[in-house]
Amino acid sequence: MIEPHAPAPTGPPRTRGEAGRSQARLPVRPTTGRFLVLAGVFVCAACGLVYELELVALASYLIGDSVTQASVVLSVMVFAMGIGSLAAKRLRCRAAAGFGAVEAALALVGGCSAMALYAVFAWTGDWGGVRSGGPRCLLVGFSLAIGLLIGAEVPLLMELIQRIRRQDAGGAVADLFAADYVGALVGGLAFPFLLLPQLGQLTGALLTGAVNSVAGGALVLGLFRRDLSRRGRRLLLIANLAVLGVLAAAAVLVDDFERAARQAVYGGQVRVALRTGVQEVVLTGGGPGHPVALFLDGRPRPAGRDGSRFREALVRPAMSGGPHARVLVLGGGDGLATREVLRLPGVERVEVVDPDAALVRLARRDPALSALNGRAFADPRVQVRTDDVFRRLRQTHQAYDVVIADLPDPTLTASTKLYSQEFYGLARRTLAPGGRLVVHTGPVTSRPRVLWTVEATLRAAGLDPVPYRVAGRAPGSARRPGGSAETSGAARDWGFVLAARDRPALTLDPHGPRPRTLTPQSLRADARAAARTRVRGLKPSTLVHPRYPD
């Protein structure tokens, strides 16, 4: 009897990848294995998004201008994810081993990224002065590396899912992306509401890396261990244990590291360092021979002789040339501008609006800072509100003789709305007849466009602005790592704009106490110096079209 021939294969020929793919030998049922793979996708997606948000948050804090930093990090990551997906095609024949190696590398790079970036910032200097190379390249490098590894996950996970149970590509992609997107949602919510407030940026990143390593290693060594040789299993286990060891050691040392880095940035006299719901507040000095210095999100408030000159230039011209019984201070939670206001006679009521309750509490209770601000917040004429400045201006129906905007730099994305035409329109509405508004704009020599953008915006809001420029400490004492509070953050100059419904007089009240650093003659010279920096043709900044350059 002749044996019949085997039936000829039908359908299109299988590709090399399909020919090499066989059903995985699992220690559990295929349904359970498929669920475990999707659970791994969920966890890895959550960790990946935490890494992205961590880089954006840390870069925004250290460099500033969060829109730019978010754009750089996210665009580089998305680009790298595409490259990583293409590169992972070569690993599909060893999908389990490749996925385990990718997750171990991602856990190490992502978990340590925050510490590495903060270390570079602390020991190499201020990022704001680095326009190319150095720390900014490190930020791009981490974004690129993390993006490559995240991108490599998807094709490898797709291969593992198909090895458990073959199904149409559309259904597999739908299941994979559903788990991925839900994981991203959880990671995106966990970062601002759990990791950042409870653990901080450094410990949060380390914990995320540990979770990433455990999830990836457990999935491969537990579910797909038969796909690996004995040597491969041993190497992957050693790699994950090494990653967990590095992350655990970093977590144990993170407090000492943070103290050392903080001293490198602020000097050795750090007395208070706290992360509020609004910003990081650091207070240094206060002892014999160590003057008090305050840093908000790493940026120094003017101190010493510069501080006196800055606050006199901010407050005195606005308090002169008209009534000043009712004063509104926007920002100024440290109490220093309020102290300058209270030095002048005729002040009946001062309202201070600052969103940071912790800073206001520190200004009240810290002995050195309260002595520096003359315990201004204890004066019965002063009422302090912890509220959003924009919201307070929108809701108030009171009229003020003077509005002093002691606000963060307009080039910071979070502060741009406080230098917009809409904001100045609300401020104009609160001005009593003859009332004045004063705004500071940051350094003029290095950023004249900011001063004149503020001037154009005030003019668009219906106010008549008068810019002036006041010189600060002489150049040559720029901030450097380890520099003392006295020499940190010195400025060449500051720009200010005094505005009112009708053109205000730039003068000093002859009946008030004599200023320590200003004279009527110097103010007029300051106005002429500002006029020489004029940049023409600038448009006003609005909420939907901010125009302040970084």
UniProtKB/TrEMBL annotation:
It catalyses: S-adenosyl 3-(methylsulfanyl)propylamine + putrescine = S-methyl-5'-thioadenosine + spermidine + H(+). GO terms for molecular function: spermidine synthase activity; thermospermine synthase activity. It is a multi-pass membrane protein. Keywords: Cell membrane, Membrane, Polyamine biosynthesis, Spermidine biosynthesis, Transferase, Transmembrane, Transmembrane helix. InterPro entries: MFS_trans_sf, PABS, SAM-dependent_MTases_sf, Spermi_synthase. It is found in: Cell membrane. One of its GO terms (cellular component) is plasma membrane. The active site is at D406 (proton acceptor). The keyword Transport does not apply. The chain crosses the membrane at residues 35-63, 69-88, 95-118, 138-161, 173-196, 202-223, 235-254. Residues 251-501 form the PABS domain. S-methyl-5'-thioadenosine binds at Q279, D354, D388, V389. Residues 1-24, 505-529 are annotated as: Disordered. Its EC number is 2.5.1.16. Its main location: membrane. Pathway: Amine and polyamine biosynthesis; spermidine biosynthesis; spermidine from putrescine: step 1/1. Residues 1-12 have a biased composition (Pro residues). Spermidine binds at D334. One of its GO terms (biological process) is spermidine biosynthetic process. Catalyzes the irreversible transfer of a propylamine group from the amino donor S-adenosylmethioninamine (decarboxy-AdoMet) to putrescine (1,4-diaminobutane) to yield spermidine. Belongs to the spermidine/spermine synthase family. Homodimer or homotetramer. This is Polyamine aminopropyltransferase. It comes from Streptomyces nodosus.
